[in-house]
Amino acid sequence: MRTIGEIEKQNLETVRKIRAFAIISKGDVPQKIGEETFVIPSQSNPEKRYKVEHNGNWTCSCPDFQNVGVHCKHIQAVEMYLRLKDKINGDILEFKDEFETDEIRCDQCNSNRVVKRGHRKTKQGLRQTYMCKECGKRFTLEPIKHRKATTKLIALCMDLYFKGLSLRKIADTIFQFYGVNVHHDTVRVWIDTFMGKINEYVNKLEPNVGDRWLVDEQKIKANGDWLWS
After folding, report:
1. Does residue 95 surpass a pLDDT of 50?
2. What is the CA radius of gyration of the chain?
3. Residues 24, 29, 33, CA angle at the centre, nearest 5°?
4. pLDDT, tens digit, 9 for 90 and up, residues 145-172
5. Following DSSP, what letter does each residue of 75-119 receive, concatenated?
6. Tens digit of pLDDT for each residue in 179-212?
7. By CB atoms within 10 Å of each CB, which of 137, 162, 220, 224 scores lowest?
8. d(Cα 133, Cα 138) in Å, to the nearest integer?
9. Which of the two residues, 129 and 7, has the higher pLDDT score?
10. What is the reported pTM?
11. Which of 118, 191, 112, 206 lies closest to 159 in space, CA to CA?
12. If we measure between CA atoms, which residue out of 170, 142, 144 comes closest to residue 157?
């Protein structure tokens, strides 16, 4: 049976986990300044920063950790950040040639007589290039051409934008997690450009509908009159 002191300690840790999640959610990503040393801004005074270190055990320079000795919200935030970063590096958002398949076809003549032919140096590193034996075209497997970032990175930026993050927070998140320095205005250009292309595509679609509508509490105009369903 747990003692009152153990229950109170567990409750404190739960509260700190909630506050740590709030820190990460608002975009205050811990900044790594050493092998296992991070700085994270204070929530009450953003200009003040606390140092979180791991040397066998986690420590934090904030008064909460110094006085109480349990894992404070800053330590919890760093742990969440590291777990999230490990997860992202292992899932489909990892920057690799995920478009590479067993059968690679030329993006100009659609021939499958394709061979690897060197690499192209980009700001994100080397990308595999291919050459078509039919038409001689050299290409990479990125669907979006002539961009600083990969297709996955652009899609991720758009996803974060429509989830409510500001342009500057998106740019900061991309830099913290992937080490890619993207200006926030570049993110805006990506969103404007590709949302325009998405709208062009969607506007060409014609929904296949029947002669019956199933609606609930909708205002519909029929024969010039507005009706509530």
Report:
1. no
2. 25
3. 145
4. 656 677 778 888 888 888 888 999 998 8
5. HHHHHHHHHHHHHHHHSTTS-S-TT--SS---TTT--S-EEEEEE
6. 778 889 989 988 888 888 888 878 888 877 777 7
7. 224
8. 10
9. 129
10. 0.40
11. 191
12. 170
Distance from C-alpha of 82 to C-alpha of 30, rounded to nearest angstrom:
9
Which tokens sit at 39? 């700085």
Residues, the chain, total?
A: 229
Backbone angles phi, psi at 119, to 5 degrees: -135, 155
Q: CB neighbours of 53 closer than 8 A, spacing ≥ 6?
A: 34, 36, 37, 38, 59, 60
Q: Which CATH architecture has domain 94-141?
A: Single Sheet (2.20)
Q: How confident is the model at residue 53 (pLDDT cuts 50, 70, 90)?
A: very high
How far is 90 from 87, CA to CA, in rounded Å?
5
